[in-house]
# Entry
Amino acid sequence: SDISGKNFKDSLNNTTPGIQIWRIEAMQMVPVPQHLWSFFDGDCYEVLAIHKTSSTLSYDIHYWIGQDSSQDEQGAAAIYTTQMDDYLKGRAVQHREVQGHESDTSRSYFKQVLVIWKGGVASGLKHLETNSCGVQRLSFNRGDVFLLDLGKLTIQWNGPESNCMERLRGMTLAKEIRDQEQGGRTYVGVVDREKEGDSLQLMAIMIHMLGPRKELKAAISDSVVEPAAKAALKLYHVSDSEGKIVVREVATWPLTQDLLSHEDCYILDQGGLKIFVWKGKNANAQERSGAMNQALNFIKAKQYPPSMQVEVQNNRAESAIFQQLFQKWTVPNRTSGLGKTHTVGSVAKVEPVKFDALSMHVQPQVAAQQKMVDDRSGEVQVWRIKDLELVPVESKCWAISTVATATYYSTPTS
# Structure
């Protein structure tokens, strides 16, 4: 049968948040009813996830490859993924998922277990296998921060030796994933290793998903880990300007956003852990349609395992994870800070009164003159304002800064 986008256009709902699944049957996309959501390992599937953000919809397309599926079915799934993205006007992030090596994002759509049947649509049912999420504690250590993304819940676990900036970066990324990829509908919970007893519900979920707690590995110095991880990042330019597709290395860490030209396509190799393909909005049709195939050819040339995860990013529809691989990433039309404010009507003129706040700590009589309310023995809480949200700041991290903060002080009762 011919591969045509008409058969999915008739069944695709691109306006309602949720999950839609199709199976490749006789080279055509056939919708799978929600009550039958389970996979055959002899087939390939298309999964469309639609998330509602504050002002628009975001899309993720996953094509799932069963371990016993045919090359023709795999090729058809790749083509349909590209066609579906074109139908969605290049606003989707595309994911290649291989059975047994699925991304955390795709697993989160299926609660705790993805049901996989042996066989395929042509061969019929043989027997059932269940693949749990398979997340493990193997990489947990005392000095880092980890995010466990469960779809409707993201848990940030802070190692006891992690520092303030690592914890802040973890929270920032968790909230970006929530807002950009989960439509703001994800709850973000924080577990501090030294205070796990204060987060019993979150700990119960972690133990359920990850298994029994194990001895934590010693902290690994960032001076060892980060340079190695950064050095492994390599950016490749994909071009057909010479009459054939040519892939050449153009940059290593540090990567900057201006390395990406809107006229071209690129491959970003995350040190053999994951492959990203970025498609410029003005790249020609051959480069854009062949982006996934070039990634697969790249995997073969590098002798990476065939199960390597691949994500295709569209210009101006990049995921938060992809953005984090660059030193700085600017999103067009996103306001920085609180933006310009306006007031309606007149504002009373207030004469400023000069005084030195620091002198109050060493001159109690000055504090008395300024009518301070007490002797400073009350409880103080400080938050850092990040992306218009309050991020708690530990007392050991308090310092004078140009960053906007909010402070709460409770006056002790006599």
User: Anything to note?
Assistant: The chain has three domains: 6-132+232-323, 145-220, 359-410.
